Amino acid sequence: MSVLIYIDHTEGQIKKGSLEALSYGAALARKLNTTAEALLLGTVKEELSTLGKYGIAKIHQAADESFNAADAQVIANAVSAAVSASGANVVIFSFNATGVAVAPRLAASLKAGLVAGAVALPETENGFIVKKTVFSGKASAKVKINSAVKIISLNANSFGIHEMGDTTAEINIVDITPTENKVKVLSTELIKGEVPLAEAEIVVSGGRGLKGPENWYLISDLAHELHGAIACSRPVADDGWRPHHEHVGQTGVQVAPNLYIAIGISGAIQHLGGVNRSKTIVVINKDADAPFFKAADYGIVGDAFEVVPKMIEAVKKLKG
Ligand SMILES: Cc1cc2nc3c(=O)[nH]c(=O)nc-3n(C[C@H](O)[C@H](O)[C@H](O)COP(=O)(O)OP(=O)(O)OC[C@H]3O[C@@H](n4cnc5c(N)ncnc54)[C@H](O)[C@@H]3O)c2cc1C
């Protein structure tokens, strides 16, 4: 019996959301009086044993390089094998693209109950009850998992990353080989020079209040100064001002940065559904009654064309 946390990675780097999942899994293991173990499929640049500082006792690694580009079904098959071998009864994923694709497949194969998008540690006094957000973050629900193996995917920024001290994790190389890929990724093209939106710590986002694509320099200049990613509301992408991969919201990319700056965006529920997991939200809008202010941590009522250049200057001054 143990808690097994799946370590997600890209380009040789462990994703920040996985560090949060490790912290969450370790806290859950302490609550259940058991051990926290982690699973890495493929290879990363980091020294794995240092992940002990998040409270992880043991890391199982299946180091076959082809896992680095495996599809969700292959990963689910491998995690399933690791769960059987380690005897884990709780499996934790990040609620990101990998978690969304892999966790349900694993649940089906293990006949396990899954709660996707958890926001707190489970209550374990009377069963195993997990709190999650529903209706695009407008409400929360408590879900009881009754199956022997339980799977949770954790919403970003809902638990935090917690270091426990300089403990070293034991590394256990496991003999799990990838099953055959049903699909094959022939090539991937990374957009160069841009901070990837879904992983960004800071996102600067613009809406129809910017009036047109010719004014987008306000968004890109601020994003550049803050080393942030650029995003937009859906109508901005629909009107062709910006590419669709930058559109955030219920029907676009879901983001959970430390800082989300919304400029000239009204704050419609469909937009908020994709950004309300951000740690800090700053809203700049000339309409004091814009709904976005209700979701904001900080708000500036003002004209973007006056406020944003001043912000850019202030950031430059701070950096200088
Ligand atoms: C099924 C469905 C799914 C949808 N999915 C999404 C989604 O995923 N993402 C999404 O974003 N939308 C989505 N929408 C659209 C959503 O309902 C809103 O229409 C959209 O978010 C509004 O975009 P906006 O805030 O940029 O524009 P507007 O609603 O036009 O708001 C512009 C804002 O800019 C402010 N403003 C104007 N001038 C200035 C200025 N000079 N300085 C500062 N502020 C200024 C205004 O006060 C206003 O608040 C969806 C809609 C539907 C029906």
From TrEMBL:
Cofactor binding: number and manner: Binds 1 FAD per dimer.
For this UniProt record, give its keywords in alphabetical order, as a comma-separated list.
Electron transport, FAD, Flavoprotein, Transport
Domain named Electron transfer flavoprotein alpha/beta-subunit N-terminal: residues: 3-195
Q: Per its Swiss-Prot or TrEMBL entry, what cofactor is needed?
A: FAD
Q: Output the Gene Ontology terms for molecular function.
A: electron transfer activity; flavin adenine dinucleotide binding
Electron transport in keyword set: yes
Gene Ontology terms describing biological process = fatty acid beta-oxidation using acyl-CoA dehydrogenase
Q: Which InterPro entries match?
A: DHS-like_NAD/FAD-binding_dom, ETF_a/b_N, ETF_a/FixB, ETF_asu_C, Rossmann-like_a/b/a_fold
Q: In terms of domain of life, where is this protein from?
A: Bacteria
Its name, as the record gives it, is Electron transfer flavoprotein subunit alpha/FixB family protein
